[in-house]
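hey
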């Protein structure tokens, strides 16, 4: 697959050939769904908590005598059926993360990249560098390219001027190539890869 390489100013910078093993697959939605669910579950805090009857600070004395009242045989006021009692089967602090094989995660990333390529939502730029860390200047450049919602993937080391300039632009994310992931790819409209990022991805999946 051949794509045109552009600069951030929108000028032509030649062509690049992308590997079909990474960008030319027929996307499988089931794989992509599994990795997104895995990422979101791992990201979930899991700090929800409810007090059970053993954690309630309330008297444990028997409420009234066992027999002769005509009422039910209750014991502690900390039981879940009483107001102020503990919650039955309530949520506890825990991790929501679950396992997903490494090979499945790698395959899902390739399918996500292929889905973007199939939708013509991949843009290759020569380099992600900025002369100065000015958000206004970068916003103008992105406006010329028609980018309002995009994920930028640079090389192993991000240009600090570009990172700082893009930091305050809504719906624009910047990640180094080692931070590329399926969820961030899908949540943005366009995927903008630098030539260094393409080379790193092809080396990774070689």
């Amino acid at each position: 697959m051949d794509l045109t390489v552009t600069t951030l100013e929108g000028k032509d910078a030649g062509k690049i050939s992308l590997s079909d093993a990474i960008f030319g697959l027929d996307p499988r939605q089931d794989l992509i769904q599994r990795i997104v669910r895995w990422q979101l579950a791992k990201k979930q805090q899991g700090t929800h908590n409810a007090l059970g009857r053993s954690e309630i600070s309330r008297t444990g004395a028997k409420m009234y005598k066992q027999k002769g009242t005509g009422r039910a045989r209750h014991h502690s006021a900390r039981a879940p059926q009483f107001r102020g009692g503990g919650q039955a089967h309530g949520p506890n602090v825990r991790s929501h993360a679950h396992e997903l094989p490494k090979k499945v995660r790698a395959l899902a990333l390739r399918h996500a990249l292929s889905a973007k390529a199939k939708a013509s939502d991949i843009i290759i730029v020569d380099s992600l560098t900025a002369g100065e860390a000015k958000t206004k200047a970068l916003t103008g450049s992105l406006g010329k390219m028609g980018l309002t919602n995009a994920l930028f993937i640079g090389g192993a080391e991000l240009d600090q001027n570009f990172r700082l300039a893009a930091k305050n632009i809504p719906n624009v994310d910047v990640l180094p190539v080692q931070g590329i992931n399926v969820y961030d790819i899908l949540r943005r409209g366009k995927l903008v890869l630098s030539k260094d990022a393409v080379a790193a991805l092809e080396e990774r999946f070689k």
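The CA atoms of residues 51 and 86 lie 6 Å apart. The chain has a mean pLDDT of 92.
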